[in-house]
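Q: What would this complex look like in 3D?
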Amino acid sequence: MNFAMALDYQSCIDCKACEVACKEENGVQLGADKQRIWVTQSEKSIFGEPFVVLHPSQCNHCQDAPCVDVCPTGASYFAIGGIVMSNKETCILCRGCMEACPYDARFVDDTHVAVDKCTFCYDTRIVKGEMTTACQATCPTKVRLFGDLDDEEGELVQLLKHRKFYVLKENEGTVPKLFYLLPEHDMNYAMNSVNEETNIYTWDEFKPLIEKAKTKRSSQWQDIQ
Amino acid sequence: MARYTIAGVEVNRVSLKNLLLGDKVIYIAYGFLVFALIGMIDVFWDRYFLVSATAFDAGLFPGNREVAAAMKEAVFGSGGEVKREAPWSLYIVNYMYMIYVGSGIVFLVALAELFNITLIKRAAAGFLTLGLGMILAGLFTILVDLNILHLHWMLLSPRYNSGMWLMLPLYIIYIPLIVLEIYLILSHHTNLAKKLALPILLMSLAVEFLEFYVQAKLFDMNSARHLWTTYPLLTFYFMISAFTASAAVMMLYTFLVYRNTDRTKCAAMMDLVKKITLYSVIALGSYEATAYLFIDKKWAGIILFGDFKFYFYAYLLLAVAIPFVLLFKERSSKLAKVIASVSIIIGTYLGRIIFVYGGNAYPMSDRFGIGFEKYGEYEAVKEIVFFMPSWGEAAIVIGSLGIIIFVYRVINLFFSVSMMREP
Ligand code: SF4
Ligand code: SF4
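A: Here is my prediction, written as structure tokens for the whole assembly.
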């Protein structure tokens, strides 16, 4: 098992359904920005032509996660399937992980006085055998596809085999597992959403990176039942 | 005053009343410690007693106006301590200042031990205690920044290879070494004290380097701190400015403690420390004059011509220009030296503030993606971050002065570390 998510972000309409569903599921303040899940909008113009790109985002469940390394108490750890978790009990709120995360994916949860983040619904759904996350289940435009990278026949890998994609801040070396699917039929949209440093991948190109990082890290994956 | 001798050290007999209420110094310490307490209450209140409404409450009481109001407050209100607009920067400034300058003092004293500089060795115990006080004040600041109530998990569930664990063994060795050195000086084990000076010297350097490493390198991916490790010359800035401040603190200390008791020795010592200070000021000035040629141009632009320029020139004026003018003369008066010290202390602190706040307001890495830098989330911060540490944070930083005075005074009361001793 190696959980990941593909995002067909061109279909995102910024309706916030995923955000509400996630926050409802996890008891997070509704509306709180950048808590667990969010959508960033970049508005710019090129030669006077304005455009908006929406990037739905959350914790990337990095295969080689720096947030896990800096945590002095082991409160941040890898669960089975490479899902990055944070334990509210043992978190001492040093916020090392918040600083280490290049994606700004972590926040302080006031109600539990601990650091919290997206868990891919590991505790609320995945351990119960479901194969969907709250955000995926609620997205009206089917932006999100959660799945298992180890399952070559599965929907996720099949999708990644047919579409090109990129990941965010690749040069941070964290091997993130949110795959942003490159818009296929709208080159303008595609170009506006990447910059010259963005590498566009095919599945065959990216798979070795995943494999390598998995070999490095999977011995740290913990079973939390 | 009655004395005991324990393990070769003369210990003053101090009554509880004398310990707690003896003189006006302790009242000054208490004054500062009250700030520390208020700050801690503020921070702990935010952390543990701020009950915020969540999505669950909204689900349990749909349509409830109170819940709606509470949620609005939780999301848009001023509650909670870690906010993008008010990151905890002053803590980091104070921690780094205190630890660096404290270990700088320890370094200079150890150096004097090694080179047999009698003038400094006479007051070594006092200087070291002062350095120790500053280091503890820095640790106090960062301990509040950490979550004290949960800190037991550091021991119950430790992950040793994480960066924070680098610090623990470092201080666990370093602080007892300083204490041991003070003990050796007080118990007249001159030769042993000199032998111990070398490891202390090395440890002080390790603290200066590792501190930088831990604070910056480990959090390298943080946009704000990214700058620290991208430009290796900045390590030197941290170290040179720390040594300048250490010399200034030592000069001020000499004046405050010995001006009435050992006038001639005081004057001679101030002259010596003045020289060290002057050289450090010149080194700092040369650094500032040249470093910007090598350091990131954008950062240089922000500091030299951008939003931080006034603070930067104030720092240069206070830490370099004024002390240079005052100390350059062959014979500068005591008053000039005192003014120069205070000016350096304020100036170098300002330097640290510019650095940390500047880094926060202007992350130097234009990284692609969802980072706040790309979407201008820092725009708002630029205007206010510099001026607005939270009230609790500021109080704790002020309170850390109380820690220095308190630690120094208590040790001095028992062991008379401020006495000049012939080595
Ligand atoms: S996105 Fe951030 S929080 Fe999530 S695994 Fe990566 S580094 Fe950790
Ligand atoms: S804030 Fe909590 S989870 Fe994050 S590094 Fe510190 S202890 Fe670990």
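A: To summarize the key features: The longest helix of chain B spans residues 263-294. Chain B touches chain A through 48 residues (CB under 8 Å).
Q: Very helpful, thank you.
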